[in-house]
């Protein structure tokens, strides 16, 4: 299976109908499955839930054009996972560094709520996205649905891994899954997630990636001396 759906993907009839309705109402919007942002050689993959109606569904880039993207991209810029300036549009010139962003469900769902069947239908694209990333070491799942979906995409039992903000689970093969509350306006407005709490997750990830990079370089150095 490819890592990106076809622009006219019909796997989920309800989502295809919703896209079609939005295309009629807003012909200048993207209105298609939103592709991953960033390159497969990244060491960090951020997995969101699904495109926002006026965010990624409008702009064609994950987390671009709505509040969740403001917090996410500001934090990525602060930690060196992005460069440039985030201006809430796909052509703002912002680029990712050692980071890639995708969604568990690639099409915008009504009321931001994909059904379990829709999440399952889209899971093969997430699995293929992960498979094509040879240097992947850390996965950050934003919210429980993305967290469980990531585990299932890896053929792991979601029931064996507890989702919590700040949770970190070893997936084997030098990879770790980190959990965070979603950086939605609702979560930040209610205080469920603060900017500092979100930054703390990225501190954990940065430390982990730095330690794995050191281990790898020491291993490479050791192999040269044999």
Structure description:
This protein has helices at 13-25, 56-59, 67-78, 116-131, 144-153, 185-189, 195-224, and strands at 44-48, 82-83, 95-96, 99-103, 138-142, 168-172, 175-180. With 226 residues, the chain is of the alpha/beta class. The protein has a five-stranded mixed sheet with strand order 4-1-5-7-6, with helices on both faces. A two-stranded antiparallel sheet has the order 2-3. Helix 4 crosses helix 5. The longest helix has 30 residues, at 195-224.
Quick one: biggest sheet? 5 strands, mixed
Shape: globular
Average of pLDDT: 95
Number of distinct helices: 7
Order of helices and strands: HEHHEEEHEHEEHH
In a few lines, what is going on in this structure?
It is built from seven helices and seven strands; from the N terminus they run αβααβββαβαββαα. The protein has helices spanning 13-25, 56-59, 67-78, 116-131, 144-153, 185-189, 195-224; strands at 44-48, 82-83, 95-96, 99-103, 138-142, 168-172, 175-180. Helix 4 crosses helix 5.
